[in-house]
Amino acid sequence: MFTTRSLLLVSLIALALGKPMGSNMKLHESREGIPDGFSLRGPALPDRTLKLRIALVQSNVAELERKLMDVSTPSSANYGKHLSKVEVEQLVAPTHDSVDAVNAWLKESDINARPISPTGDWLSFEVPVRKANELFDADFSVYTHDETGKEAVRTLSYSIPAELQGHLDLVHPAITFPNFKGLRPIFSSQMKTAPQTLTCDVAITPACLQTLYHIPSSKASQPSNRLAVTGYIQQYANEDDLESFLDEFRPDTNSSTTFTTSTIDGGSNPQDPGEAGLEANLDIQYTVGVATGVPVEFVSVGDDVQDGGLEGFLDTVHYVLSESTVPNVMTTSYGQNENTMSRNLANNLCNAYMQLGARGTSVLFASGDGGVAGSQSASCRNFVPTFPSGCPYMTSVGATESIVSETAADFSSGGFSNYFAAPSYQTTAISAYLEKLGNTNSGKFNRTGRGFPDISTQGVRFAIFVGGQLGTVDGTSCSSPTLASIISLLNDRLIAAGKSPLGFLNPFLYSTGASALNDITSGSNPGCNTNGFPAKAGWDPVTGLGTPDFNKLLKAVGL
C-alpha cells in the first residue's frame, strides 16, 4: 500500500541478534514516575517479545500547519481548497538524511522493520526485552493496572544514539501507558416505557435533537459525503439493533438503512446480539439515525497490536490517510488522560490529525467523562487534561443536558492542555474566559494551554438499543456522533451547492461560526475536590463555544 522510498527499510535482512555499534546514548524521553492506577510488578522476562514502533522526524510540519490554517480560515482566499494526498505526503515525509540514518542504525542493530504509515515515517519491528533494553538503554518492566489487573510492559525512560537525534522522533510504547478502561458511555438504565410514549425530558431521541438543534429530517443527496465512526476495544455495531432503533425513532425512514464496515488490525463486526457493543451501537444509531441519508462507515479496529493503548489510534489515522479519498467527518468516542502518554507521541498523533484536516476531514473526539479529573472520574490534585482533546488540530466535543434550558453536563471533561499551547484561533476566547475566572482554581491548570472542548451537544439519557433491549446512556460519547451528524448534513448541502466540505472546523467555529451557536452559561464540571470550571458567557472549558443551530450554521457557511 505504501510506496515511498522508505520501503527500502523492508528489505533489511535480520541476522542473529548482535550488539549495535557503540553509540553515545542520549536520554530521549522519560516520565517522572508510574502513572496513577498502575503498580510495578517486576522486570519483564528477557526473552519476552516486544512489539515496538519507531517514528522518524517529519520534514515540514510547520508548512503543513500554515497550509491547514490557510484552507480552514473563512477569511482566507484559499478557504476550502484542501490539499491532496500527494501534497500532504510531500510535506511530512522524512528527509533522505533521516531515512539513511535510521536505515543504517537498523542494519547495524540486526533489525528487520516494516513501514506502517503512508510516508514511511512509522516503522514496526519485534525484539526480545533484553534487546530492547540494550538498544534504548531502557528498563522494560511489567506494570499492573490496579483496577482491571491487566499488564503492560513499559519503561520509565529510554535513550537513543546521539547520531539519531533529529532523525528519530520516538519509540512506542516505551513510556506511554495504556488506557485499559477506554472511554465508554454510562449505561443508565433499561427502560420499560414504550418507545412511542417517550418525551424529551425522559430520554433523548433523534426527534428531540432535530427539534432542539433544527436538524433537518430530509434525506441527504450526496453519495460522496462519507461519515466515519471508529470503534475499539471489541465494540461492535449491531445491525438488528439499528433496525429496531430506526423503526422506533425514525419511522419516516427505511428501517433497513445500514452502514458499511471496514476493519483494521484484525477488526471484525460480529452480529450476535450478545456481542452488541454499547459504544458502537450508540455511535452508529445516532449517526445513521440523525445524519439522514449520509453514507456511514464503521471502522472496526481489532486487538492484533493493541493492549489497550494508542496503537489503534495510530493505525486508524494511518489507514484513513492511506486512502485516496478521506471521509468528510470522522468521529471517535474514545480517549485517555494526556499525562499517561509521551509528549512526542501526543505531538505525532496530533500532527496526523492535522494531515487529515488539511485534506478536508473534520476530526471529532468526545472530550471525556470525568469533568476536570480527566477522561473518567478519578482522584487528583491538579486538573487532568485529556487526549486528543488537547490537540489544536481537531474538534473536541463536550456535553450538555436539559432540553428546556441547556446547561453543562457535570461530567463533561474540559480544561487546558499541558502539552499543547493555545492556538491562534483560540487565544482571544481563552483570554476572555480567564479574565472572568479570576483566581478560581489558581495553580491547578495550565493557563497558557490549548483549551477544550470547542463545542458541545446533548449528552444525557440517550435512548439506544443494545442486544434487543432499550435503555439510556450518558456521556460525551453521545455528543460527538451527534455533532458529526450535524456537520455531515451541512457538508451535504455544501457539496450539493458545488462547495467544499468544512474540513477542520475550529477556525470557522471561533470566527464566523460562533454566532450560529447557542451559548451555554450555566453548570460546571467538578473534579479533583473542586467545582471545576464554571460555564460562562462566550467560550468556556466545559461546553466550549456552545451548542449548534443547524439553520444558523447554514447561513454562516454561506447557504
TrEMBL record:
Annotated positions binding Ca(2+): D519, I520, G538, D540
Cellular localisation: Secreted, Extracellular space
Signal peptide, first to last residue: 1-18
Domain of life: Eukaryota
PROSITE patterns, alphabetized: SEDOLISIN
Keywords: Calcium, Glycoprotein, Hydrolase, Metal-binding, Protease, Secreted, Serine protease, Signal, Virulence, Zymogen
Main location: secreted
GO terms under cellular component: extracellular region
Record-given protein name: tripeptidyl-peptidase II
Cofactor mode of binding and number, as noted: Binds 1 Ca(2+) ion per subunit.
Lineage: Eukaryota, Fungi, Dikarya, Basidiomycota, Agaricomycotina
Protein's organism: Lentinus brumalis
Cofactor: Ca(2+)
